[in-house]
Write a structure and sequence with these properties.
By secondary structure, the chain is an alpha+beta fold. The chain contains four helices and six strands. It has a six-stranded mixed beta sheet with strand order 1-2-3-4-6-5, sandwiched between helices. Strand 3, helix 3 and strand 4 form a beta-alpha-beta unit.
């Protein structure tokens, strides 16, 4: 988790993918991972030459019970590891494992509408653009958008009740 925290800290302190402005410490990152796993959702890391170069997970979209079949994904890579398919491999596996756990929809809330790499990754994996919240975050002295994307994990008849 030390490398995961270090990778995320770079995105918090230097990037706009995360709207956090203070990097969480190691203990907080461990707490967040435990919450993901407790929700029966995946938390994955990618290694290259024995070193963690990225991580991805799905978290509960919202805490209210009606959202219990919807998750939100996150993918973060070491800046030196971008462009080699690691993000795609991580997110693909997150989608598979979330589906296997019974989740029905995956939401992506992408920080900064200029984040073409993340938008492209999600589009390539079947996400659709469903909206943009304009100027909802303020970081590095400028206003930032949040791009909303969504992908069905399981096709279900929405008129029928499900207990699964």
């Amino acid at each position: 988790m030390v490398r995961v925290q270090a990778i995320y800290a770079v995105h918090v302190l230097k990037g706009t993918a995360s709207f956090e402005e203070v990097a969480p410490n190691h203990e907080e990152m461990c707490r967040r991972r435990e919450a993901v796993l407790a929700a029966r959702l995946p938390y994955l890391v990618a290694e290259r030459d024995g070193e963690v170069v990225g991580f991805a997970y799905a978290g509960r979209y919202r805490p209210r019970s009606a959202y219990r079949y919807t998750a939100e994904d996150s993918v973060y890579l070491d800046p030196a590891a971008t462009g080699g398919g690691i993000g795609r491999a991580l997110l693909s596996r997150v989608l598979e494992l979330s589906t296997a756990s019974g989740y029905r929809e995956m939401i992506a809330i992408i920080g900064d509408s200029a984040n073409a790499a993340s938008i492209g990754l999600h589009r390539a994996l079947g996400f659709s653009h469903v909206g943009t919240f304009s100027r909802v975050g303020f970081k590095f002295g400028r206003w930032l958008d949040s791009v909303l994307m969504q992908r069905a994990l399981l096709r279900v008849d929405s008129s029928r009740r499900t207990d699964a």
